[in-house]
Design a protein that fits this description.
Blueprint (H helix, E strand, L loop, with lengths): L6 H18 E6 L10 E5 L6 H10 L5 E6 L6 H9 L3 E3 L11 H8 L3 E4 L19 H9 L3 E7 L1 H4 L13 E7 L15 H23 L10 H15 L3 H14 L1
Parallel strand pairs: 1-7, 2-5, 2-6, 3-4, 3-5
Antiparallel strand pairs: 6-7
Helix pairs in contact: 1-2, 4-5, 5-7
Length: 263
Protein backbone atom coordinates (compact mmCIF):
# COMPACT_ATOMS: atom_id res chain seq x y z
CA UNK A 1 0.00 0.00 0.00
CA UNK A 2 1.51 3.36 -0.97
CA UNK A 3 2.40 5.74 1.81
CA UNK A 4 0.48 8.99 2.08
CA UNK A 5 2.22 12.15 0.88
CA UNK A 6 3.49 14.40 3.64
CA UNK A 7 1.49 17.31 2.25
CA UNK A 8 1.55 21.11 2.54
CA UNK A 9 0.39 21.43 6.15
CA UNK A 10 2.89 18.96 7.56
CA UNK A 11 5.69 20.63 5.63
CA UNK A 12 4.55 24.02 6.95
CA UNK A 13 4.54 22.64 10.50
CA UNK A 14 8.07 21.34 9.94
CA UNK A 15 9.23 24.74 8.70
CA UNK A 16 7.80 26.38 11.84
CA UNK A 17 8.82 23.80 14.44
CA UNK A 18 12.14 22.36 13.28
CA UNK A 19 14.36 25.46 13.68
CA UNK A 20 13.63 26.01 17.41
CA UNK A 21 13.90 22.25 18.04
CA UNK A 22 17.28 22.17 16.32
CA UNK A 23 18.46 25.04 18.53
CA UNK A 24 17.04 23.80 21.83
CA UNK A 25 17.90 20.09 21.77
CA UNK A 26 20.54 17.74 20.47
CA UNK A 27 19.48 14.42 19.00
CA UNK A 28 20.38 10.79 19.68
CA UNK A 29 17.91 8.98 17.44
CA UNK A 30 18.00 5.23 16.94
CA UNK A 31 15.76 2.52 15.52
CA UNK A 32 14.49 4.34 12.43
CA UNK A 33 14.99 1.11 10.50
CA UNK A 34 12.11 -0.36 12.53
CA UNK A 35 9.62 2.18 11.18
CA UNK A 36 7.74 0.33 8.40
CA UNK A 37 8.37 1.66 4.91
CA UNK A 38 4.83 0.90 3.75
CA UNK A 39 1.40 0.03 5.09
CA UNK A 40 -0.50 1.06 8.17
CA UNK A 41 0.99 0.74 11.63
CA UNK A 42 0.93 2.12 15.16
CA UNK A 43 3.69 3.70 17.16
CA UNK A 44 3.21 3.50 20.94
CA UNK A 45 5.26 6.21 22.66
CA UNK A 46 5.92 7.19 26.27
CA UNK A 47 5.01 10.75 27.28
CA UNK A 48 6.99 12.82 29.78
CA UNK A 49 6.95 16.43 28.55
CA UNK A 50 4.67 18.85 26.73
CA UNK A 51 7.55 19.30 24.27
CA UNK A 52 7.97 15.65 23.31
CA UNK A 53 5.10 15.44 20.77
CA UNK A 54 6.93 18.03 18.66
CA UNK A 55 10.34 16.41 19.12
CA UNK A 56 8.97 12.93 18.43
CA UNK A 57 7.09 14.19 15.35
CA UNK A 58 10.43 15.59 14.13
CA UNK A 59 12.04 12.17 14.61
CA UNK A 60 9.38 10.37 12.65
CA UNK A 61 9.08 13.09 10.01
CA UNK A 62 12.70 12.32 9.19
CA UNK A 63 11.77 8.68 8.47
CA UNK A 64 9.34 9.77 5.77
CA UNK A 65 6.37 8.25 7.65
CA UNK A 66 4.71 11.14 9.43
CA UNK A 67 2.65 10.32 12.54
CA UNK A 68 -1.05 11.07 12.88
CA UNK A 69 -1.65 11.84 16.54
CA UNK A 70 -4.96 11.37 18.33
CA UNK A 71 -6.32 14.61 19.77
CA UNK A 72 -9.50 15.92 21.37
CA UNK A 73 -12.13 16.57 18.73
CA UNK A 74 -12.69 20.12 20.04
CA UNK A 75 -9.23 21.20 18.87
CA UNK A 76 -10.26 20.66 15.26
CA UNK A 77 -12.79 23.52 15.47
CA UNK A 78 -10.44 26.27 16.66
CA UNK A 79 -9.28 28.68 13.93
CA UNK A 80 -5.72 28.23 12.69
CA UNK A 81 -5.05 25.40 15.14
CA UNK A 82 -8.07 23.53 13.81
CA UNK A 83 -7.02 24.12 10.22
CA UNK A 84 -3.51 22.84 10.99
CA UNK A 85 -4.87 19.78 12.81
CA UNK A 86 -7.11 18.92 9.87
CA UNK A 87 -4.45 19.74 7.30
CA UNK A 88 -1.78 17.58 8.93
CA UNK A 89 -4.20 14.66 9.15
CA UNK A 90 -4.37 14.43 12.93
CA UNK A 91 -7.14 12.20 14.24
CA UNK A 92 -10.05 13.49 16.33
CA UNK A 93 -11.13 11.43 19.32
CA UNK A 94 -14.77 11.85 20.25
CA UNK A 95 -14.67 11.29 23.98
CA UNK A 96 -18.44 11.58 24.28
CA UNK A 97 -18.84 8.24 22.47
CA UNK A 98 -20.31 5.52 24.66
CA UNK A 99 -18.75 2.78 22.53
CA UNK A 100 -15.02 2.51 23.28
CA UNK A 101 -14.26 1.01 19.87
CA UNK A 102 -16.29 3.65 18.01
CA UNK A 103 -14.22 6.35 19.72
CA UNK A 104 -11.20 5.01 17.81
CA UNK A 105 -12.96 4.37 14.52
CA UNK A 106 -11.00 7.16 12.81
CA UNK A 107 -7.72 5.66 14.03
CA UNK A 108 -8.73 2.25 12.67
CA UNK A 109 -9.66 3.82 9.34
CA UNK A 110 -6.31 5.63 9.19
CA UNK A 111 -4.35 2.43 9.79
CA UNK A 112 -6.39 0.62 7.15
CA UNK A 113 -5.57 3.45 4.70
CA UNK A 114 -1.88 2.81 5.28
CA UNK A 115 -1.20 5.60 7.78
CA UNK A 116 0.93 5.67 10.92
CA UNK A 117 -1.13 6.42 14.02
CA UNK A 118 0.90 7.57 17.03
CA UNK A 119 -0.51 6.65 20.43
CA UNK A 120 0.49 7.88 23.84
CA UNK A 121 -0.93 4.83 25.65
CA UNK A 122 -0.67 6.48 29.07
CA UNK A 123 -3.18 9.07 27.87
CA UNK A 124 -1.37 11.93 29.60
CA UNK A 125 2.03 12.93 30.95
CA UNK A 126 3.45 10.28 33.23
CA UNK A 127 2.98 10.88 36.94
CA UNK A 128 5.70 8.45 37.91
CA UNK A 129 8.08 10.46 40.16
CA UNK A 130 11.10 9.24 38.19
CA UNK A 131 9.58 9.63 34.74
CA UNK A 132 9.01 5.95 33.95
CA UNK A 133 5.95 4.91 31.92
CA UNK A 134 2.89 4.36 34.09
CA UNK A 135 -0.12 2.11 33.61
CA UNK A 136 -1.80 2.71 30.27
CA UNK A 137 -5.18 2.90 28.63
CA UNK A 138 -6.20 0.23 26.13
CA UNK A 139 -6.81 2.33 23.00
CA UNK A 140 -3.64 1.32 21.17
CA UNK A 141 -4.28 -2.35 21.89
CA UNK A 142 -7.87 -2.05 20.65
CA UNK A 143 -6.80 -0.59 17.31
CA UNK A 144 -3.91 -3.04 16.96
CA UNK A 145 -6.06 -6.10 17.59
CA UNK A 146 -8.83 -4.82 15.35
CA UNK A 147 -6.47 -4.16 12.40
CA UNK A 148 -3.66 -6.67 13.18
CA UNK A 149 -1.21 -3.94 12.18
CA UNK A 150 2.40 -3.71 13.43
CA UNK A 151 2.85 -1.92 16.77
CA UNK A 152 6.23 -0.19 17.07
CA UNK A 153 7.23 0.52 20.68
CA UNK A 154 9.06 3.85 21.00
CA UNK A 155 10.89 5.17 24.06
CA UNK A 156 12.03 8.77 24.37
CA UNK A 157 13.90 10.75 27.00
CA UNK A 158 15.33 14.26 27.26
CA UNK A 159 12.47 16.64 26.54
CA UNK A 160 11.46 16.14 30.17
CA UNK A 161 14.83 17.64 31.12
CA UNK A 162 14.12 20.64 28.91
CA UNK A 163 10.56 21.06 30.20
CA UNK A 164 9.71 18.76 33.13
CA UNK A 165 6.14 17.42 33.29
CA UNK A 166 3.57 19.58 35.06
CA UNK A 167 5.82 22.64 35.03
CA UNK A 168 5.94 25.74 32.85
CA UNK A 169 9.55 26.83 33.34
CA UNK A 170 12.02 25.37 30.79
CA UNK A 171 15.61 24.48 31.67
CA UNK A 172 17.40 25.69 28.55
CA UNK A 173 21.01 25.27 29.66
CA UNK A 174 22.94 23.13 29.36
CA UNK A 175 21.47 22.04 26.05
CA UNK A 176 19.50 18.81 26.42
CA UNK A 177 19.58 15.70 24.24
CA UNK A 178 16.41 14.10 22.89
CA UNK A 179 17.01 10.35 22.89
CA UNK A 180 14.67 8.10 20.91
CA UNK A 181 14.75 4.35 20.42
CA UNK A 182 12.16 2.65 18.21
CA UNK A 183 12.09 -1.11 18.56
CA UNK A 184 10.86 -3.96 16.34
CA UNK A 185 7.12 -4.68 16.28
CA UNK A 186 5.56 -6.07 19.44
CA UNK A 187 4.30 -9.62 18.94
CA UNK A 188 0.57 -9.52 19.70
CA UNK A 189 -0.36 -12.51 17.57
CA UNK A 190 -1.46 -14.58 20.57
CA UNK A 191 -4.25 -12.06 21.17
CA UNK A 192 -5.65 -12.19 17.62
CA UNK A 193 -9.10 -13.62 16.83
CA UNK A 194 -10.12 -13.77 20.48
CA UNK A 195 -13.00 -12.05 22.21
CA UNK A 196 -11.90 -8.49 22.96
CA UNK A 197 -12.58 -8.56 26.68
CA UNK A 198 -11.31 -6.01 29.18
CA UNK A 199 -8.84 -8.58 30.51
CA UNK A 200 -7.51 -9.37 27.03
CA UNK A 201 -7.03 -5.67 26.24
CA UNK A 202 -5.32 -5.10 29.57
CA UNK A 203 -2.90 -7.96 28.94
CA UNK A 204 -2.10 -6.78 25.41
CA UNK A 205 -1.57 -3.24 26.69
CA UNK A 206 0.84 -4.51 29.36
CA UNK A 207 2.87 -6.28 26.66
CA UNK A 208 3.11 -3.04 24.66
CA UNK A 209 4.08 -1.00 27.72
CA UNK A 210 6.69 -3.57 28.78
CA UNK A 211 8.38 -3.16 25.38
CA UNK A 212 8.39 0.64 25.67
CA UNK A 213 9.75 0.47 29.21
CA UNK A 214 12.47 -1.96 28.17
CA UNK A 215 13.67 0.43 25.48
CA UNK A 216 13.59 3.32 27.94
CA UNK A 217 15.75 1.29 30.32
CA UNK A 218 18.27 0.93 27.51
CA UNK A 219 18.22 4.68 26.82
CA UNK A 220 18.57 5.63 30.48
CA UNK A 221 20.90 2.84 31.52
CA UNK A 222 18.70 2.17 34.54
CA UNK A 223 16.16 -0.37 35.70
CA UNK A 224 12.50 0.61 35.84
CA UNK A 225 10.35 -0.23 38.87
CA UNK A 226 8.95 -3.76 38.75
CA UNK A 227 5.41 -2.43 39.11
CA UNK A 228 4.40 0.55 36.95
CA UNK A 229 3.03 3.60 38.70
CA UNK A 230 -0.78 3.44 38.76
CA UNK A 231 -2.48 6.86 39.19
CA UNK A 232 -5.80 5.23 40.11
CA UNK A 233 -4.21 3.11 42.82
CA UNK A 234 -2.29 6.13 44.10
CA UNK A 235 -5.51 8.18 44.35
CA UNK A 236 -7.14 5.39 46.37
CA UNK A 237 -4.13 5.14 48.68
CA UNK A 238 -4.02 8.91 49.10
CA UNK A 239 -7.72 8.93 50.00
CA UNK A 240 -7.15 6.20 52.58
CA UNK A 241 -4.21 8.09 54.10
CA UNK A 242 -6.28 11.27 54.29
CA UNK A 243 -9.20 9.47 55.93
CA UNK A 244 -6.93 7.77 58.47
CA UNK A 245 -5.50 11.17 59.46
CA UNK A 246 -8.90 12.89 59.78
CA UNK A 247 -10.38 12.90 63.34
CA UNK A 248 -13.82 11.29 63.63
CA UNK A 249 -15.75 14.49 64.26
CA UNK A 250 -19.24 13.10 65.06
CA UNK A 251 -17.85 10.42 67.38
CA UNK A 252 -15.88 13.00 69.35
CA UNK A 253 -18.96 15.20 69.68
CA UNK A 254 -21.08 12.35 70.96
CA UNK A 255 -18.40 11.39 73.43
CA UNK A 256 -18.25 14.94 74.82
CA UNK A 257 -22.03 15.04 75.23
CA UNK A 258 -22.00 11.69 77.07
CA UNK A 259 -19.35 12.96 79.46
CA UNK A 260 -21.42 16.07 80.16
CA UNK A 261 -24.49 14.02 80.96
CA UNK A 262 -22.64 11.76 83.38
CA UNK A 263 -21.11 14.61 85.34
Amino acid sequence: MPRRRIGFWYRLAAVICKPPLMVLIKRDWRGMENIPADGGFITAVNHNSHVDPFAYAHYQYNTGRVPRFLAKSGLFKKGFVGAAMRGTGQIPVYRESTDALSAFRAAIDAVERGECVAFYPEGTLTRDPDGWPMTAKTGAARVALQTKCPVIPVAQWGCNELLPPYTKKPHLLPRKTHRVLAGPPVDLSRFYDREMTAELLKEATEVIMAAITGHLEEIRGERAPRTPYDPRRERIEQRRRTQSQTPAGPARTQGTQAEGQST
